[in-house]
Amino acid sequence: MNATEAWRDEATAELFEAILRLQSVDEASAFFRDLCTLGELHDLAQRWAVVRLLDEGRHYAEISRQTGASTATITRIAQWLHHGEGGYLQALARRKAARESSERPRGSAASAASAASAAGAASDEGQPKVGSNPRGPR
Q1: What one-character-per-residue DSSP string does 18-31 give?
Q2: Bigger pLDDT: 112 or 50?
Q3: CA angle, corner 115, sides to 110 and 117, nearest 5?
């Protein structure tokens, strides 16, 4: 394992598996509050807010005013958004698919098929292109 992959170890794998086993926002909230300091939670939430605003095409100065993040932090997040592991892009695509499916009328087979199709298409949107650096800035 090279230095840029050193963060991937048994402890981080166990952490990610624990997170994936949580079944609700309330469970996740309780887990993260136990795991993180208030400052760490604020920083994580701020980063996610920056990602969403960058995805909307907002300007760095506007994002900084709205979130309190420095333009240096916003630049770093933008680099990971566009050249990182693809995690931000996957989360954004799933968020978009979930929002779209919650806006559709429920109960018809056509809407279920449409939601499944949209979720599949959304999971491919924004994925790193072949030949791009999937590891992001170092």
Answers
A1: HHHH--SHHHHHHH
A2: 50
A3: 95
pLDDT digits (tens, 9 = 90+) for 101-127: 988 765 544 444 444 444 444 444 444
Q: SS in 3 state form for 49-115?
A: HHHHHHHCCCCHHHHHHHHCCCHHHHHHHHHHHHHCCCHHHHHHHHHHHHHHHHHCCCCCHHHHHHH
Query: CA-CA distances (angstroms) from residue 42 to 74, 82, 115, 129?
Result: 15, 23, 33, 32
In tens, the pLDDT along 7-30 reads: 889 999 999 999 999 999 999 999
Task: Find, among 66, 63, 95, 65, the residue nearest to 76 by Cα.
Answer: 63
Q: The pTM is what? A: 0.70
Dihedral sign for Cα atoms in the order 120, 122, 128, 131: positive
> pLDDT tens digits, residue range 29-42?
999 999 999 999 99
Residue 126 zone, left/alpha/beta (φ > 0; ψ -120 to 50; rest): left
